[in-house]
Design a protein that fits this description.
Elements: E1 5-9, H1 14-24, E2 30-35, H2 38-47, E3 52-55, H3 63-75, E4 80-83, H4 93-125, E5 129-134, H5 147-167, E6 172-179, E7 181-182, H6 190-194, E8 202-203, H7 205-215, E9 222-225, H8 230-238, H9 240-246, H10 251-254
Parallel strand pairs: 1-2, 1-4, 2-3, 4-5, 5-6, 6-9, 7-8
Helix pairs in contact: 1-7, 3-4, 4-5, 8-9
Length: about 270
Amino acid sequence: MRGVIALVTGASSGIGEATARRLAREPGARLALVARRAERLAALADELGGATVVAADLTEPEAPARIARAVEDEHGRLDLLVNNAGAAWRGAFAEAGWENVRRHMELNFDAQVRLTEALLPLLRRSAPSAIVNVASTAARVSRATSGAYSASKFALAGWSDALHLEEAPHGVHVGLVLPGYVATEGFPQRELVASRLTRWLVSTPERVADAIVEAGPVGRAERYVPRPYWLAAAARVLAPGLVRRATSGGRLALAPRTGADGQDRSERGVAD
């Protein structure tokens, strides 16, 4: 980790901001911070003692190439890429339809793939290096009204496994982090935190940041946050009918409101 050069997307708040702070504690670390909100990125960079700031909407066609040029020009190498940016909008398929699936895939999957493609040559030249894709326990267990979000995270998880197999011979490790409920600006988890019965389910961005380090430079294949959430993923494989019954009740608690609910694309910055 000494002298690590890392790029973190979605760095303006939540897990991305916590990850930037965690990495900045490493001796000689140099960071590139990416998100839509330039003012927040600049403030965080100043607080951390300096960082490369790239204000970009990752869904824009030219964004990956522009970010790659900035990292190449400023640092000349890249040791760690953290694909963290994302958002979620609740909605049953019968009401929200394909459009809700499309916008989830555009940001939570397509944008991560496109940025990785742009930075992969640099990561290979910098090997040993690592990519960490931040998915979700929703990549293993789906819930009512969040199927579009799960679809994007399922895709990210499957692609991550294949990418690791392809890039390991080139010295690029690919790790996966699967957070459960984490209280952030984009995912406030107010319904869960308000109840004593569900408050224990909610974790913190700082714990996810530690897991990102484990799944990146430390070389773990994947990490659940909190760790016991892997039991839900295992149960989905071993007893899918039981998991369906378990997730069919308490619909509000299982799919709490997100920061992106009720917002159009122009306001989506709260989630990245």
